Amino acid sequence: MRARFMAVVATAVLATALTGCDSVKEATSSASNAADKAGICVEAVRLAGFNPDASNPEKTAQEAEKTATDLTALAEKTADTSLKDALNGMSAKVNELSTATISPATVTAWAKEKVSAVDTLSQACL
Q1: How many domains is the chain partitioned into structurally?
Q2: How far apart are CA 86 and CA 82, in angstroms?
Q3: Contacts of 77 by beta carbon, 8 Å cutoff, 6+ apart
Q4: Sign of CA dihedral 66, 72, 78, 80
């Protein structure tokens, strides 16, 4: 009888400990996800600061391609759907710039449109 009682107590203690471990794991995971999102957002905001130089279309097109690739890579690192969509949208906006499309007029129009993509990205990071 005493052995049974001890087995029941041991099982209850083990179940309580495992439940506590799950809670700790969940809290740690949530904190880690928040830290990951914050890190991704910091990098995304830096990349979103990309400004094309209409006087050097080749260099601007190369930098735009790299920036778009980096934004897409960030999108692949997050599980947050809103953030992923915002990063992909910003990447698509930056990727619109190519040597053939870069002129003072198109860069000005592009910069005005970019504001919306940056705003979406900022909102996703909140």
Answers
A1: 1
A2: 6
A3: 36, 40
A4: positive
- 8 Å CB contact between 72 and 88: yes
Angle, helices 81-95/2-48, rounded to nearest 10 degrees? 20
Q: Name the residue range of residue 9's domain.
A: 2-125
Is residue 80 helix, strand or coil? Answer: coil
What distance in Å separates the CA atoms of residue 38 and residue 36, rounded to the nearest whole number? 5
| Residues 103, 55: Cα–Cα separation, whole Å | 8
Q: What is the mean pLDDT of residues 87-111?
A: 93
Distance in angstroms (rounded) separating the CA atoms of residues 28 and 36: 12
CB 40 within 8 A of CB 77: yes
pTM of model > 0.85: no
Cα separation, 54 vs 74, whole angstroms: 27
Per-residue pLDDT tens digits for 67-82: 999 999 999 999 999 9
